[in-house]
Amino acid sequence: MSSLLPVCTMRRILAAGGLLALLTACGTGAVEAPVPHPDPTAAGLCRTLHDRLPQKLHGLSRRATTPKSYLVTAWGSPAIVLRCGVPRPAALYPTSELAVIDGISWLPVPPDRPVTFTAVGRRAYVEVTVPPKYTPAGDVLIELTGPIKATIPANPDGSL
Predict the structure, then answer these.
(1) Which residue ranges make up each domain of the chain?
(2) I need a labelling partner for 120 at 20 to 30 A (CA). Which of 79, 102, 109, 127 fits?
């Protein structure tokens, strides 16, 4: 099935509600990505995060997103896409193996060859989709730790 998709398009199933999403990740046009619907508290934190995100990530410039929302930010081609205020990942369990980078716990999905990482244990979940072209993906996550730590507090009870 993936052979029918353009090389620059990534198809994946979002855990929340089984929503099928297409992330258009090539060219210079706007990147298509579903906008999360967080609660008002998380939305406020996400707005602050959006204002603190770098104009360049991993040497890649920001790109427009569609629909336009402060909850979604993209860089480069193929696009690295950050979505703030996503639902708790369905794959997140107390026993999940997490990657901890500069004090932020990330859930990689799929665990063996991750494409999507979700920052967990914070007041808002932040999802970052890193195309395989950008390796190691951890370099991208390192660049995002500062803005996330500065704007999305850790859960005070230590919950994921």
Answers:
(1) 2-151
(2) 79
